[in-house]
Amino acid sequence: MNLLIVDDESSFRLHLKHVFERQGYSVAEAKSGFEAIEKAKQTLFDVILLDIILPDIDGLEVLKQLHLISPFAQVIMMTGNATVENAIASMKLGAYDYLVKPFDFEELSILVKRAQDLARLKREREAAEHEKSFRSRFEEFIGQSEHTRQVMQLVERVAPTNSTVLITGETGTGKELIARAIYRKSVRSDKPFIVINCSAMQDTLLESELFGYIKGAFTGAVKNKSGLIEVVNSGTLFLDEIGDVSPEFQTKLLRFLESGEYRPLGSTHTYKSDVRIIAATNRDLKQLMQQDQFREDLYYRLNVFNIHLLPLRERPEDIPILVDHFLSKSCFALKKCVKKCHPQAMKILQSYHWPGNVRELENVLERAVILSDGQEIKAEDLPADIKQTSFEMNKTTPLKLADLERQHILNILQKTGGNKTETARLLGISKKSLYHKPHKYGVM
Ligand SMILES: Nc1ncnc2c1ncn2[C@@H]1O[C@H](COP(=O)(O)OP(=O)(O)OP(=O)(O)O)[C@@H](O)[C@H]1O
Ligand SMILES: [Mg+2]
After folding, report:
1. Which residue's C-alpha comes closest to atom 7 of ligand 1?
2. pLDDT tens by residue, 133-143
3. CB-based contacts of 28: which residues, under 8 Å, 6+ apart?
4. Ligand 1 centroid to 312 CA: how many Å?
5. Before 160, cis peptide (omega within 30)?
6. Across 139-178, where does the E strand assignment appear?
7. In what order do the strands lie in the sheet with 97-100?
8. Ligand 1 centroid distance, CA of 362 (Å)
9. Is the pTM for the entire model greater than 0.70?
10. With CB atoms 3.0 to 4.6 Å apart as the test, which of 61, 219, 312, 413 could cross-link to 354 if both were Cys?
11. Is residue 177 in contact with ligand 1, taking CB distance under 6 Å?
């Protein structure tokens, strides 16, 4: 709760300061219009008490400026000599209220409290809007590779059905993003979407969270508790890391998937619920099945519809568009403006093997945006290990003849200080054929 008091009379300011500090406000003071404007640039105020007559600028002018600087702050105008014109002008300029001195401090306190509630509300609404637009802008699954196109087609096709979906792929390939995309495009999109991370929970906890329990089912179960399956009835449940659940839980899950029935822990009754299940794992379920760690029947039940996401290194065509996407995402979040990636940096990004997949790419770019001091991500903004690995990969992949030629020409040009006649002589070719070397060399 930040309050700013703007008045040239110091004893009056001091008095108000005491009153409001006692009520828990953090109070700042300004003795002139300019000082008020400077303070508003540094602190987010909820409420500003502003005298109309100030030694430097007119209070109404200050009011205009304050609205531009802190649109959420509510401004209460104060004046010693009331004129109707001033009151009307203040309200027209969007002041919260207008008080004539001397005023009752109790009345002022109530007014400030109400103004503060309004400021809070406005700020929260703005934050929610911002969050919403951020989400809708950046929750999309981005990519332009053939693989991504196919994945998006599968999403479109399976979303409107009620089918269980199993999403597989290495860590960071976007499994959760796909699960959310399926949910958004489904007929259940107005119902809840709940994520359960199966590997983070112990078995009984997972079971009781999902199916609920009755009083006395175990020590500590002092009353009945509904499970998520009941709570999200007709919603969507995303079971993340499904490869990590115990065989007992697998049995219960299978039963639910087959019949829609479940039994809360400790209960003798079975209940029914209509929940769509989307599951994901980065483990190889087939292999787990062969090792008897995953039930075969559950595997087939989940695998009715499988979406497999390829590792990023197997779809480098997605990298440029992902880079654009994450640059604008980071810039939006960090309030910076780094628009592009230098071709050399892009080359490094495209030749790295990305064990952490898209998540790792996103982190690398965010870091680069923080480090960058220009409009472009350069190779030096990338972490050393990424540059190193990419360099080593390049050493083992054979160079194209044209690349070698380009490099050689560039070297000689550098040696001769850009002298083309001398360069041609050293290369043993005519100056004319040097000029005929394609412009792609970017040196002529
Ligand atoms: N194709 C994509 N387009 C845009 N963002 C993506 C894409 N793929 C992944 N991301 C981003 O990468 C991060 C990791 O994605 P996500 O959490 O969906 O991965 P995951 O496969 O569930 O990983 P894990 O197995 O580790 O849980 C998220 O921030 C997500 O927004
Ligand atoms: Mg995940």
Report:
1. 174
2. 777 777 789 99
3. 2, 3, 4, 5, 39, 43, 45
4. 11
5. no
6. 165-169
7. 26-30, 2-6, 47-51, 74-79, 97-100
8. 9
9. no
10. 312
11. yes
